[in-house]
Amino acid sequence: MVNPGSSQPVSAERRLQDLGIVLPNAPHPLGAYVEAVQTGSLLFLSGMLPVKDGKLQYVGRLGKELDESAGRDALRTATLNALSAAKAHVGSLDRVTRVVSVKVYMATHGDFYNQPIVADAASELLRDVFGEGKMSVRSVLGVTALPLGAPVMLEVTFEINN
Amino acid sequence: MVNPGSSQPVSAERRLQDLGIVLPNAPHPLGAYVEAVQTGSLLFLSGMLPVKDGKLQYVGRLGKELDESAGRDALRTATLNALSAAKAHVGSLDRVTRVVSVKVYMATHGDFYNQPIVADAASELLRDVFGEGKMSVRSVLGVTALPLGAPVMLEVTFEINN
Amino acid sequence: MVNPGSSQPVSAERRLQDLGIVLPNAPHPLGAYVEAVQTGSLLFLSGMLPVKDGKLQYVGRLGKELDESAGRDALRTATLNALSAAKAHVGSLDRVTRVVSVKVYMATHGDFYNQPIVADAASELLRDVFGEGKMSVRSVLGVTALPLGAPVMLEVTFEINN
Question: CA of C72 to nearest chain B CA: how many angstroms apart?
């Protein structure tokens, strides 16, 4: 949507603005770890939860207490936290040269198999911010429980321009 | 089995032929992601499912609807998909200098603890193709549910010769 | 605790001694894989189980057969195995320049959400050995089952000084 027909790389920061997205404050660790570690050109992030204004936006499992739509909303929040944690670490999201990998963990109960639809809430937002050419690999899986009773957790690895 | 007593590196493509393996078509993503991303010398793959001819070869959980033998067969299919996705991305499997890591996720129910035996269906195939000297680290875990109801999912990271 | 007020990097091997920790023998793979793979400056480890003297120290799930305290003890054992596997591969833990990432998998049943407290048994030990400045990112998740019925599994990636 930005720079159509141009060979200029699209600015992720500019796209965020165009999308009307204001990033939340970077999340805080729940223990003896940090939210981001860079090694070489790879930026690893901790598992991001759907925390909003300091508390979980949703609690429960998909397919039991929560439906697909709540799952997508929760995952979008976790994705914004990931973007915020990355920006806090590297200064500007324009330094992201690739979204390398995305893992989406969902607390699920019983026969909940619409995981790809929920996971796309993260993948679509990352694509909208960084562009189609920087899309990641992805794994999605259902788990029994996530920290604090969260319904989803997101793990992202970025490639950074040093 | 190839080049016994020789110091020549063994060709993975040649081994595939010797094993009588014809790789399937590369799998298609189920959402806004891609099947392979290379960053530096690392090639990350998406979680591979036991999809054959466009549909899941098995549906169900190990220890409930499916047994160990079905799990191994499903995981072998997922491994062939991983090899196909890697080859589609880098051109030739001879460019793989190391299988770095393997993660095997299994949808399990109840007391199913023979995970290492099932997981070896992937590890043994990768060893047969790339050789003992390129064996990976591995993690294996049981989960509640995988996309589309798949019994297994495989995540592989390769080191590539640039 | 070592070299207070000094700009000298702290020795992890020295800290281990100060903590009175004697590492166990390096663990053995349960199949066709290896315990450690280095690629570039990254050292990947296999999922480490709470194996002590050749057998699982605990069997069961957190929130059912085992409580938080057993979970922490089991995870500490798995962490010592990770340190041992890393040392066996690179010779000295002083070559670790960063703990890049930690993943803690817990076999959980029902409403067990104190995962961060259990996971800190690994994170705190790694912080005590390598120092606050080398703390990792972290993901924690509850799963249905782990190999051999283990309650916890730990995955660590280190950055190594070449």
Answer: 19
Check which CATH number belongs to the domain holding B120 and give it.
3.30.1330.40
Q: Is residue B103 part of a domain?
A: yes
Which has the higher per-residue pLDDT, A144 or C111?
A144
**Does residue C53 lie within any of the structural domains?**
yes
How far apart are the C-alpha atoms of B152 and B61, rounded to whole Å? Answer: 8
Q: Phi, psi (5° rounding) for residue B84?
A: -65, -40
Give φ, ψ of B34 to 5 degrees.
Answer: -120, 165
How far, in whole angstroms, is CA A123 from its chain's centroid?
8
Which tens digit of pLDDT belongs to each residue from B88-120? Answer: 999 999 999 999 999 999 999 877 888 999 999
Give residue-wise pLDDT tens across range C46-91: 999 999 999 999 999 999 999 999 999 999 999 999 999 999 999 9
If we measure between CA atoms, which residue out of B136, B131, B135, B127 comes closest to residue B4?
B131
What total of structural domains would you count in chain B?
1
- Give the nearest partner residue to C136 out of A37, A103, A144, using CB atoms: A37
A interface with B, Cβ–Cβ < 8 A, is 40-42, 98, 100-102, 108-109, 111-113, 115-117, 119-120, 123-124, 126-127, 135-144, 159
**How many beta carbons lie within 10 A of that of residue A79, not counting itself?**
24
Q: Write down the pLDDT at residue B3.
A: 44
Q: Place C4 in a pLDDT band, splitting at 50, 70 and 90.
A: very low
Tokens 């690893």 belong to residue: A44
Cβ contact (<8 Å) for B116 and C30? yes
Q: How far is CA B127 from the centre of its chain?
A: 11
Q: In the beta sheet, which residues pair with residue A39?
A: A42
| Among chain A residues, CA nearest to B32 | A123
Find out whether C13 and C87 touch, Cβ atoms under 8 Å: no
| Percent of residues, chain C, with pLDDT higher than 90 | 90
Tens digits of residue pLDDT in B40-77: 999 999 999 999 999 999 999 999 999 999 999 999 99
Q: In this model, does residue C115 exceed pLDDT 80?
A: yes
User: How close does chain A come to C132, measured CA to CA in Å?
Assistant: 9
* Phi then psi dihedrals of residue C43, to 5 deg: -110, 110
Domain assignment of residue B128, given as a range: 37-160
In a domain, B41, yes or no: yes
The model carries a pTM of 0.95
State the Cα–Cα distance between residues C102 and B64, nearest whole angstrom. 31
Put simply, the answer to whether C120 touches A32 (Cβ < 8 Å) is yes
- Tell me how far apart the alpha carbons of residues B124 and B145 are, in angstroms, rounded to a whole number: 25
B7 assigned to some structural domain: no
- Per the listing, tokens 């890393």 go with C86
